[in-house]
User: Fold this.
Amino acid sequence: MQSFTTLTTDTPPSPSLHQRTKYPSTTTTTTTSSSPLTPTASPMSVLQPSHNTTASPTSWRISLLSIITPALRFSLSLAYTTQLLLTLTLSFLLSHGLYASKALAVNAYHASRIFVINAWHTAVFVGINLFYASRAAALLGLRSGWAVGGHGWVVARDGVRGAWKRTERARARVFFEFMVWLLHPSPLVLFIFWPGWIFVFMGVGYYYYC
Assistant:
């Protein structure tokens, strides 16, 4: 038969995990409380809430400034950025407005100049055409007047000749009466009732009024 030797150790056997959980150790370990702000503080001690209820006014002021300062910096940066964007936008609009107004002014100047030049050439062309048209009309009227005047003179001459021929017998009768008046023993009667006075008065009236 085999013999078993008993193993004896100076240290007692370590309790199991179940025993350690169910029966905690009665040995008290002294832990030194460390401040969250000390270099030797554990990582879990930083997350623990502070139990210091007697904070000084200086710490409150510092905390308030630490909150307000980033907000103020962000507000100033946002205001500067907004002002810069607004300035760039206004400068862009102003430059483009000036360029557009300059372009419109130049185009209006050239358009008005072209219009004035075209109007001047049109007026000169119309004036020259009217001058030549009036000159041609005057020459045509003058020639027509000469033609009508010459034709009228010919017509008047032919009319006078015809009238002279038609009044030949009447003139012979008047001449006969005139000779009778000169040779009559009583010339006063013939002078008063002489029929040739009609032609004499007609000739005098034509001379003075025509």
